[in-house]
Amino acid sequence: MSQEMISQEALLQVKNFTLRVDSKILVADLNWTVHAGERWCLIGRNGAGKSTLLKAIAGMQSQLYMDGNIQWKGRDLPLCTPEELSKLRAYGEQFPVGGIGLRSIDIVLASQWPWRGDASPNEALNHALAALARCDVEHLAYASWQFLSGGERQRVSLAACLAQSTPVLILDEPTAHLDIHHQVTLLETLVQASEACQQTVIASLHEIGLIGRGFTHALIFTGKVGGYLAGPIDEVVNSQTLEESLGHPIEEMTAGSGIRVYIPV
Amino acid sequence: MAGLFTGSVSNADLSLIYDLRLPRVLIAFAVGGLLAMSGALLQVLTRNPLAESSVLGVSGGASVGALAVLMMGGAGTVWVAGGAWLGAVAVLALLWLLVGSYATHPSRLLLAGVMVATGCGAVISLMIAFASDMAMPGMIHWLMGDLDSVMNLEAVGALLGIWFFVLFILFRLSPQIHLLQLGTDKALSLGVNVPLMQWIMVLISALSAAAAVSIAGSIGFVGLLVPHILRAVVLKRLGPDQTFLLPAAGLLGGIFLVLSDMVARTIIAPSQLPVGVITALIGVPSFLFLLARLRQWSA
Q: ipTM of this model?
């Protein structure tokens, strides 16, 4: 099978999917296909269901509140074992937590658990340090988690996701708490990995100014009950759809560098 | 006893060593190890550095069971340990009913445990208030934790067996338990069967505590102090690596209680102090000292 064929095969397929929390419907009848190498951003208001949907496709949400079908590489999600999933996707939490006395390096090392035994302790350490370096937190490798700032924690958590070495990254607001420079460089890091080795990124996002910086597709919660728009950025993202989704007037502009940006007015 | 080192050992000394001292040292080792492992497990499970077996109410349940037997004049019988075991298991069953389907919310377990422990404390006070003058000293002694009532070899063997079993299980599961430190969601995403692992941890922790408490009464602080000392010593170099911390707690806890018991037995010889008093007297200042020294504990 050629590289081209693999990339055409659906990586994630969500069919007739309805998601509820208690009696509140978050998405209704969602049909969504993700191919390898695509970079999706999820956009919607607080409480729209971005996090819950990310957890659902990551296989980390109770089956109780969902109907429909999720398939990874043609296999039904409930049939995938936790071990299989851990080699397929990394999941970056919105609020990463650390235990008593954990250091950054401990968290990143622990994230290589799915591939235990494949690398020597030394290789694992180098791999972890490289992941920390990619997120610009190598200097904090041996710092205690509880002394890190919110943005530093977010970057360590992302480094842990990268160190998990999975073809798919599912990230819940990866740019939250980050300063502007790190928001942009982090997205660049993700784009590079994605372009170099077909890594797929699915991330929720509040910084609409970043949509144009590397995402290829968007899933927008329209703000109506269960409503959504999914497709390539050019087709679904514009000031009207964003306005409707976020409930705030949005203007579209093209920066001098040619990057399209959206600004709340 | 000095004869031991010069080669001439009288029969009386020998029987003292084999019948009294050796079983007691072995029991102290197993009890200390079990309490320390139980505490170390609960600290990871509840993500709370203050957790130890008494907060789950297991020690309280065991105390109620043992005191009930003592009240009815069962002092010195195997029923004291049996009653304690039943009490501990009853608390465990109650917790299971209360938090059964909420294993992924350890704080719920902690809350239920603290409530059950408080309830047990009230029942214990009630029992002491109504106890006869005959039974009272034995009850108080049991509550302070003591090792001198344990002299039969079956109990020694059983407890060492449980100690070894728990150590083995923890040795096997410690890599997954290590991942739980990153939070339940992260552990789940790394392929750990989190609900299963949490229930194994609750069970193992409660069973170790129940076994230890039913034999030796309520001995505090071992479960809190030993894991924290270990963490303080290895934190800088290894981080909180549970593959090291959990088995090491099983060993260091044992050594700590053997030494404490030695002090309890000899410091005002020929009288003996309850070992629970010594662990607390050593434990509290050392703990406060470490707390003052290590700022990392602001977790």
A: 0.88
